[in-house]
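ok so for the tutorial part 2 we go from a plain amino acid sequence to predicted structure tokens. step 1 is just haveing the sequence, like this:
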Amino acid sequence: MSATKPILISGGGLSSLLLAQSLRQSRIPFKIFERDTSFSFRAQGYRLRLSTEGLEAIESVLDPPTWQKFWDKCGKTGGAGFTAYDAITGEQTEHAAPETLASRGGKIVGIARGDMRKVFSEGCEEYIEWNKRVVGYELSDDGVFAVFADGSKSVEGSMLVGGEGIYSKIAKQVSGGRLKVYDTGARGIHGQAPTAAFKGLGEGVFSLRDKTRPDGAVFIITNVRPDQMDDPGVEFGWTMGGQPGIIKAPNDDYTIVGKQAADIAKSLVKDWHPRFKPLFDEMVEAEAAFWKITCSTPSGVPEWPNEPRVTLIGDAVHSMTPAGGIGANTAVQDSALLGRLLREAGGYKPGVTAAYEREMRIYASKAVHTSYTTAVSSFGVAIDENTTPTV
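step 2 — the prediction. this is what the tokens look like for a chain of 391 residues:
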């Protein structure tokens, strides 16, 4: 690493770590500030399906050995492709061939967030400062400081990248409040179960939907991978979603994990077909966790006056619903693009963030719109930019 001022990165999520990998290989100094005390502090969330664009972005950043390690961690699913079932009757309602979701080699490629984070963090650990919650920034004559929740400041950086997700204080400050994240009211629960619980489904990507409830639909989606089906040490995950008002946490506390979340999931599927019940009866209760379904402005990433030394990546700039599975794939495109521009400039240079934001707004605005319109039909959500609450 050179002795120049580091690039400061707020947040230690997937897009931040992939950007750090890019900077490390370009020998551009950086520091990551993460609010948690370690990667194991919180549940890592549900499994991600990687698109062609997402895989290409990741491969463009990682060196060949790290890419191979990442690729080996990915599950590759062919089998039945995508199949939807009526959760109550067990009848098939929809089917699509594997290639409809395939991203490489005719396979549907997915990876657990935790595994992805481990690979992306390799070689970057010494540059992470834990228990540092960034709440703003201060510009200097020729640099920028991150400001932490305890009032202290970081070292002076050449540039600050806000990658700390939907609650980003950097996003609010740099955009002058133009960036908003709306709470759609829809909620979800993520669960895990041993592979044996999924044998009744077989290989493929499955959606199970219950439309009999008077208050709206409940559904899950899961990815069953053949290479790990007979490994008793492996758990597969499922992600449950419900229309606004159906999935509720006690006292509206969505930080609750474990048995309370598991019990709510089980109560919602008590009338489901016996073929699907093992996913819930055998679930690892400690792994259950709620999540809110949020979305940025559906019309796209707004414009704001460019601040040359501060920009944003990932959910901090374009939060998306899980519909279509394109949020993380868009976030890694941010990392690849910004990392490439910084490498070509040899580090921070005036104009880098403006060039990045121009290009990012095009593909990210399209992705947010796709994510939102899909969620309107899947989750029954609706965002009114004047009345829908923000997070």
